[in-house]
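Open question from group meeting: does this chain pack into something compact, or does most of it stay loose? Before anyone orders reagents, we agreed to write out a predicted structure and look at it together. Recording both the input and the output here so the notebook holds the full record.
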Amino acid sequence: MWLVCEDGSIEQAQAELSKLLEKYNMRTSDVSPLQSLSDVVKISTNLKDGEFPKVFLPIDAHIMEKSKLMELVEQVPDELQLAKVEERKPYLPIRPKSLRKEWQYDDEAYNFIYDYLSAFTAFNFTEGMKETLQKSRTRVIRENTPEELFNFLTQAATPANFRRFQEHELEEIFYRRITGWGEQETKEIGEVEDDEGPELE
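Structure tokens returned:
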């Protein structure tokens, strides 16, 4: 989970998010790895038995300023094109403030390209942020084939994430995900055309 905050508000966001996580007894796997494994077993058992779990999965929490996140989103299409021309792995470094045992900036940046392609999901975005994201995704799917995007994804992945995407089901989910980006664009174009058309009585 990434909490996107206004520029200059990371410390305030950190304090507010920490209180919420504590209130709902949510924590990261770094705090107690053995407890996290135990919780996963409990959750799996509950779900298998048709019961709603009473504990949460460990959360991977980060905080980013809005301007930095939108800047990265806008840079993705150009970086993919440049990587294609230069025949290299696409790379956009990202260093959010992350909750480990404590809040910290990790020593090494990780690759935003992987998150963008694999799982980045907008939640409660402003209209301007939604528009920025959709423009970026529209360019990405127009300028690259699905196979090229999957190749970019695996190039940008860590070894552990690379192994995950060897599963055929995850690969299928990826292709459905990027197909959805094109469907979203078509839907929005249709809505605009409807708004500009004659009114029906």
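Observations to bring back to the group:
The chain has a mean pLDDT of 88.
The CA atoms of residues 24 and 56 lie 9 Å apart.
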